[in-house]
Fold these 2 entries.
Entry 1:
Amino acid sequence: MSSPWTILLGLFLISSQVLADLYGDAQTLEKCLRELSSPENIAGDLQKLERYASWTHEELPCLLRCLAREKGWFDPEANKWRLQRLTDELGADMYNYCRFELRRTTTDGCSFAYRGLRCLKQAEMYAGTTLSTLLQCSRQMNATNVQLMQYSRLMAKEHIPCLFQCFADAMGFYDSAGNWRLVNWQQAFGPAENEEPSVAANYSSCRLSEKERQEAGNKCSWMYQEYLCWERINGNYLTKEKS
């Protein structure tokens, strides 16, 4: 006769869609649950797992570190992400989206893994949209691949005039009054380098005054200037142009 553990777990694995969110197959999830839960607690733990999409903190401590370890993405002994393996398996776009999150310094490996996997899930949702929107805008402007490649370096003058405006409008970076929709910026570019509230508040200084926007000459120009400010706060600085 099957144990209560096996029955509960079997019913959950059949009915739940959370596995895709957890980057794990049924066997991996079962292995981690057996490692971290117990027959006495499994029913309650499965109920917590069903709420995974709405977690604001890891309700099953260290579960995601176990899953990331089993995938070979996280080294619990060194308390580090295996960045090259992540890039090889998930792609450079996914890694770049989460690069700040995956490189943070922390002594809490469980929290580190939780935040990293949550970021990778967010990247799965948004990184593709960011890239496809950028490519769509470049096609509208008949930009060449060579011109797009120039965006690998941050320059004071936009390589493709008005490309960022097209992108920002499509991604909803601004409301009708011209104010930043910060959440949309974060969804497009991923977590910031420093997530301290004081740093997040600095983004307000990126919004040029109405006078400064008018003096910039046109919407494309002031939007690009504000984008450069975003990059500067995240530790990315202008590349000096060759004289």
Entry 2:
Amino acid sequence: MKHKTDKIDETSAGLNQIIEIINAKGDEGELRQIISNTKIISDEEGDKTLK
């Protein structure tokens, strides 16, 4: 089971990624870089999370 601070950190990372995507404003190269730097992980309950 994850701790509350772990979930907050994951939420923060996800929100930061959304902001990066918005700021990319359609720049294909920058969007590809953001996606390539994203890792999808599964927790014990099977939920997928961006990291």
